[in-house]
Amino acid sequence: LQVFLVEKAGRRSLFLAGLMGMLVSAVAMTVGLVLLSQFAWMSYVSMVAIFLFVIFFEVGPGPIPWFIVAELFSQGPRPAAIAVAGFCNWACNFIVGMCFQYIADLCGPYVFAIFAALLLLFFLFAYFKVPETKGKSFEEIAAVFRRRKLLAKAETEMQDLRASEEA
C-alpha cells in the first residue's frame, strides 16, 4: 500500500505530512499527560495521540527516508549511503530505547515535548533542504543540488560586494 501511496503523492509531501502529524501527536500526548490529573478523559486523548503518532510515522518518516536515500545517490556510493542511513536509524532507535525511561523520569509529563521540538527541527530541515525525488532521475536530483549551490554562492558574492561597497 505504501508503495502506491508514495508514487501517487510524492516522497517529500508524505515525509513532511508524516513529520507534521507526529509533531501534532507529540504535542497532544504532552497536553494529555499534563492534564491527566485534572481530567480523566485525557487518557483517551493520549491514547488517540499515540495511535496517530504511529500512523503518521508509518506514512512518512518510517519508509520515506529509504526511498529518498536510494534516489539521492548514484549507483557507486548508494550502498555506503544506505549503510550509513541504516546505522544512523538503528543507533538513534537504540539511544531512544535506552534513554527514554531516564528522560521520562527527569521530564515527567513533558517528555514528549522533547520529541515535538526535534520533530519541528526535522520538519524545517526537510522543508528547506530535501528535494522531491518522485519521477526524477539521479541526474535531475543532482542538478537541483548544483542549482542550490550556485544560488547560494551567488548570494554570498552579492553580500560580499555590498559589504565592500559600504566600506
From TrEMBL:
<feature type="transmembrane region" description="Helical">
    <location>
        <begin position="41"/>
        <end position="59"/>
    </location>
</feature>
<dbReference type="InterPro" id="IPR036259">
    <property type="entry name" value="MFS_trans_sf"/>
</dbReference>
<keyword id="KW-1133">Transmembrane helix</keyword>
<dbReference type="InterPro" id="IPR045263">
    <property type="entry name" value="GLUT"/>
</dbReference>
<keyword id="KW-0472">Membrane</keyword>
<feature type="transmembrane region" description="Helical">
    <location>
        <begin position="14"/>
        <end position="35"/>
    </location>
</feature>
<dbReference type="GO" id="GO:0005886">
    <property type="term" value="C:plasma membrane"/>
</dbReference>
<dbReference type="GO" id="GO:0070837">
    <property type="term" value="P:dehydroascorbic acid transport"/>
</dbReference>
<feature type="domain" description="Major facilitator superfamily (MFS) profile">
    <location>
        <begin position="1"/>
        <end position="134"/>
    </location>
</feature>
<feature type="transmembrane region" description="Helical">
    <location>
        <begin position="110"/>
        <end position="128"/>
    </location>
</feature>
<feature type="transmembrane region" description="Helical">
    <location>
        <begin position="80"/>
        <end position="104"/>
    </location>
</feature>
<dbReference type="InterPro" id="IPR003663">
    <property type="entry name" value="Sugar/inositol_transpt"/>
</dbReference>
<dbReference type="GO" id="GO:0046323">
    <property type="term" value="P:D-glucose import"/>
</dbReference>
<dbReference type="GO" id="GO:0005903">
    <property type="term" value="C:brush border"/>
</dbReference>
<dbReference type="GO" id="GO:0055056">
    <property type="term" value="F:D-glucose transmembrane transporter activity"/>
</dbReference>
<protein>
    <submittedName>
        <fullName>GTR2 protein</fullName>
    </submittedName>
</protein>
<dbReference type="InterPro" id="IPR005828">
    <property type="entry name" value="MFS_sugar_transport-like"/>
</dbReference>
<dbReference type="Pfam" id="PF00083">
    <property type="entry name" value="Sugar_tr"/>
</dbReference>
<keyword id="KW-0812">Transmembrane</keyword>
<dbReference type="InterPro" id="IPR020846">
    <property type="entry name" value="MFS_dom"/>
</dbReference>
